[in-house]
Specification:
With 295 residues, this protein is of the alpha/beta class. The chain has 13 helices and nine strands.
């Protein structure tokens, strides 16, 4: 299959690698030359621009940071879209902006899916990402060969915009988990609790959650955690703040109160302001621990 990939960031580049390894003809574009050269070294072709990628691809995948960039890329591709093309947006953006892109692309005769991702950079490298797909089921069925190489689970969650709604629900829960894990860690540290024992108890009790298992924020307790690896981002603080802003905005439009998410967003924004915006979002614990006077 001729596949295009636009946006070779921490997620997009390894996803592209899986597509090349699966034997697809892959054409790429990105804002920076370094990732393009890395993708070409893996066996992809340089499409030079989003328009060039769309011209040389049957399925075009997007993985860019925000709503305006998705709109910008769709704008750039419009001249090459038509009945033989499918666009799949793997970004996390505003559900209503996504619905508008479904309509714009559909008006050209092309097909459109949204497929926001969960699993972070680790999942992208392993090819085990979860995809929350919004759009037509038939389009998903026809497009699966372009998604399977980097996916562990693909779920069709509904029509246009529903993939983004489900993704925002997932991320606001994860953010709340992480802020609670940070506060629990601060209590344990200040009280002299053995953190390995804490982890053992939590993972066999009602406090068990993904944040505890993968991001308990004390170095040396969870070997693969950001805290044990210089706070290298599996998911950056700044991106989580962006996603919580999207969730809060959308919730306001549909009339849902969001007190817990608002608190989590405030703590993560403080983490960005403290200089940890490019670190993993579990760095919120550094702020909580500092406020608690704990190391």
């Amino acid at each position: 299959m001729r596949i295009g990939f636009i946006g070779l960031g921490a997620m997009g580049l390894p996803m592209t690698g899986h597509l090349v390894a699966a034997g697809h003809d892959v054409t790429v574009a990105s804002r920076s030359r370094g990732p393009i050269e890395a993708a070409v070294a893996l066996g992809a072709k340089d499409g030079l621009s989003p328009l060039g990628v769309a011209e040389h691809s049957d399925v075009v995948l997007l993985c860019v940071p925000n709503s305006p960039q998705v709109v910008e890329v769709v704008d750039a591709m419009m001249g090459a879209l038509g009945e033989s093309k499918t666009v799949v947006d793997c970004s996390t953006i505003d559900p209503d902006v996504e619905r508008a892109q479904h309509m714009r692309v559909g008006a050209t005769g092309a097909r459109y899916l949204e497929a926001p991702l969960s699993g972070g950079t680790a999942g992208a490298h392993k090819g085990t990402l979860t995809l929350m797909v919004g759009g037509e089921a038939e389009t998903l069925s026809n497009t699966r060969p372009a998604l399977d190489p980097f996916a562990g689970l693909i779920v069709h969650v509904g029509g246009p915009g529903m993939g983004q709604v489900v993704k925002l629900c997932n991320n606001l829960i994860y953010a709340a988990q992480m802020t609670a894990t940070a506060e629990a860690t601060a209590i344990a540290v200040r009280s002299g609790v053995d953190m390995h024992k804490l982890l053992e108890v939590l993972t066999h009790s009602t406090g068990d959650c993904a944040a505890v298992r993968t991001r308990l924020p004390v170095a040396g307790v969870v070997p693969g955690s950001p805290a044990s690896n210089g706070w290298q981002p599996g998911f950056m603080t700044d991106l989580m703040v962006k996603d919580l802003d999207l969730a809060l905005s959308y919730a306001s439009r549909v009339g849902v109160p969001m007190e817990t998410t608002t608190t989590a967003r405030q703590m993560l924004a403080a983490t960005s302001s403290a200089g940890y915006g490019q670190e993993d979002f579990s760095a919120v614990a550094k702020v909580v621990l500092a406020l608690a006077g704990a190391k």
